[in-house]
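USER:
Make up one protein:

ASSISTANT:
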Amino acid sequence: MGVFPQRGGGPEGGGVTEVLFRAPGGAVRYDFSGRLPFSWPRSARVPAVDGGPGEPPLFPYGYGLTYEDDGELPQLPEGEAGGPGRA
């Protein structure tokens, strides 16, 4: 989850809240979309480029979610890159 810094008690907090949370009845107030402008690597290993050898990305170029998506993601690695606990 991202962090949204806020200063003061201005109206900006309400706008962020309307995007992040659904209305009391469960309806989506404002759908959002965004796409990655680059591939997000799976680890510190050499990534695959244009289908060549290497590790495939965790999230490929153009990946993104909206409220319409189910939001199911695979288990993400929690260990240090190249260290124990890496998936």
